[in-house]
Specification:
CATH architecture: 3-Layer(aba) Sandwich
Helix content: 25-40%
Number of domains: 1
Structural class: alpha/beta
Radius of gyration: 16 Å
CATH topology: Oxidized Rhodanese, domain 1
Shape: globular
Strand content: 5-15%
CATH class: Alpha Beta
Amino acid sequence: MIRAAILVALVATAAAAETVPEPDGYRGEPYRSPVPATLQGAEVIDIDRAIALHDQGAAFFDVLPRKTRPEGLPEGTIWNEPVHDTIPGALWLWDTGYQALAPAEEARLRDGLTRAQADDPDRPLVLFCRTDCWMSWNAARRAVEWGFDPVLWFPGGTDAWAAAGRPMVTAEPVAP
């Protein structure tokens, strides 16, 4: 029942996305809002294509931001970073989907993409986040602008993956 509700929400979101135009630049806040149905220079894929590409060995990149310790916690407060689940085999290139990137985040994204194609320059690069998340759109747009090819954007991300009943694993952030 819950899966059906999630799939209905994803379909409704996809229908709404058709009316969202691609911006001229990178998108900032709010990052969690309807996204375009297109990304110039990249292939936009759905869950079925994502599963097929995953099974064929495409490189998957999760760009969801990493949760940081909240400011102002009293000294001695124990804080545990929340677990982040992702698609099996995906590299978690955290914080690489913002509108503007610091040099460390830009290097993390560029290096991750480069390493994925080191032995196979034609290996598909699939970038994702969550449903209605501009982070993956921004990261995929950067990949296209930097000349990576083929770049595939999976706007359904981990939400669509989980709704399809696919396994998830605990992500380990890629060091900066």
